[in-house]
Amino acid sequence: MQLPTEQDQPAEPVVSQDFTRTGQDMAAMPPPVLDALDAMLGRVHGEIRAEERRRLRFELHDGIGPTLAALALGLRAAHNAVGRDPAVAGRLLAELEHEVQRGILELRRLTGERKRTELDELGLLTALRRQAAALSGGITVELDLPEALPPLPGPVTTAVHRIAGEALTNMARHAAASSCLLRLWLDHELHLEIIDDGMGLPGTVPAGVGLRSMRERARELRGECRVETAAGGRGTRVAVRLPLRRRGD
After folding, report:
1. Given CB 3.0 to 4.6 Å as the disulfide criterion, which of 39, 67, 214, 230 pairs with 237?
2. Where are the beta strands (DSSP E) in the chain?
3. Do the strands 189-196 and 140-144 form a parallel or antiparallel pair, or are they unpaired?
4. What is the domain partition of the chain in residue ranges?
């Protein structure tokens, strides 16, 4: 039997040698170089923290924000209905209880206690119908949705759900609208359109967190979100276009 030679012995892990050498090299670096590296790492960590804060702000604004806005509108409508129609007030309060539970679940998701979202459990079409039903105060939402949807990428469904929620909330709070149309359709792209009959856009549209969030969510998926005056010069139109395939597919 031939004994293994020195050449047959397994070599020591290169990674360990590299790590050792790297540590020795860094220890041998002059202090100004180490200070520069520390400063660079500090800037990188600061950028990461800033990006995390920006993402969390958008998530809170787009997730919890519409829920709280719906609660405020619903409570106002229920208060107005208590005297003249207790049955309507009771129905509104029951819907508001659901909105509170929805907000609690969303908070649990943001804090990592809950992995699946309402969107995961209900699907996009049902989630859009619930968003429309959550609007109170005499606003009629007409839905033009397909009967079913093919499997869609998760980021696309999340973007549509968030953008629709923000657009409906803005309409209910600022547009002085009595009705709106929410449409969703697919060709080689996904299209979302929300048109209200309100007072339309002011001369200068402020770049608030909500509008920036809507546009950035679409832009991150190589799509676009336009907020413009509706045809005829009255009301507001939110138009979203999201590609369903990546470039090169």
Report:
1. 230
2. 140-144, 179-186, 189-196, 224-229, 236-243
3. unpaired
4. 34-243
As a whole number, mean pLDDT of residues 47-74 equals 67
Q: Per-residue pLDDT tens for 203-237?
A: 665 566 778 888 988 999 999 999 998 887 789 99
Contact present, 200 and 174 (Cβ < 8 Å): no
pTM of the shown model: 0.57
Q: How far apart are CA 217 and CA 131, in angstroms?
A: 18
- The predicted structure's pLDDT at residue 41: 66
Q: What tokens were used for 22?
A: 């790297």
**CATH code for 34-243?**
3.30.565.10
DSSP codes of every residue in 23-41: HHHHHTS-HHHHHHHHHHH
